[in-house]
Design a protein that fits this description.
alpha/beta, six-stranded parallel sheet, 12 helices, 13% strand
Length: 243
């Protein structure tokens, strides 16, 4: 059973920037992933056992305070923040290979074009996996070979939660790499420009979720209207279980 109050969560951007080099699994947690992990033990294990879990949502920051959790993040750290931090670090430290696994070939092509301008010291390699709920053994072997053969200095996985986190967790020992691995979902589309991220005002006021809901109501209403209510219920239930 996943309990928010027991998770090791990164508390600040400064702490995240000090994460040692090497093979490290970096995941994010927000209201939606917390709700999902309560029903999905494999996903819960992926969140509990990663090397760095970042609070991608003001709701997580506030809930940790309410629960008096052992981790007390004092700022939201979005997947986008992780992406920019790691890309700038790699580019400024001499560059190397960055591998993007996930999304469509169109999105990956746009990412490569933009990264060539933003991060000239980084060589972008990528692979677009088959679009299906679950990969076959052959699919996995191809994906893993693509990544291992690229010998990346940074690896991004973008297949939405919880699929991306579960895939990394299940295949961790097969990845013959020595770099940070981040599961960043929608950041692929944000960076490619195929989906517009909320303007800064919405981000500063912890309303990015509302912006996405207004932009894509048919796709996002269940996640935010029902999901946010469920998150509050689950947090209160965890708090009451302390007594």
């Amino acid at each position: 059973m996943l309990k928010l109050k027991e998770l090791n969560i990164v508390e600040s951007r400064d702490e995240l920037s000090l994460l040692p080099q090497g093979k490290k699994m970096i995941n994010t947690i927000n209201a939606h992933s917390y709700n999902t992990a309560l029903k999905d033990s494999l996903f819960a294990n992926a969140l509990k056992n990663c090397d760095a879990l970042i609070p991608d949502g003001a709701s997580i920051v506030k809930a940790c305070k309410l629960l008096k959790a052992k981790s007390q993040p004092f700022e939201r750290i979005a997947g986008w923040d992780l992406f920019i931090l790691e890309m700038e670090k790699l580019n400024n430290n001499g560059g190397g290979v960055c591998f993007f696994m996930g999304s469509t070939n169109e999105v990956l092509s746009k990412i490569k074009d933009r990264a060539a301008m933003d991060y000239p010291n980084i060589e972008v390699k990528s692979y677009s996996p088959p679009y299906k709920p679950q990969f076959s053994e052959d699919d996995n072997n191809i994906i893993i070979s693509q990544i291992n053969n690229a010998k990346p200095n940074l690896l991004w996985i973008g297949m939405t939660a919880p699929k991306q986190e579960k895939w990394v967790y299940e295949n961790w020992d097969k990845l013959d790499i020595d770099c940070h691995v981040g599961t960043i979902g929608a950041v692929f589309d944000f960076y490619a420009g195929t989906i517009k991220r909320a303007p800064m005002w919405w981000q500063r006021h912890s309303l990015e979720w509302l912006y996405r809901l207004l932009k894509e109501p048919k796709r996002m209403w269940r996640r935010y209207l029902i999901g946010n209510t469920l998150f509050l219920y689950n947090v209160l239930r965890e708090k009451l279980s302390r007594k």
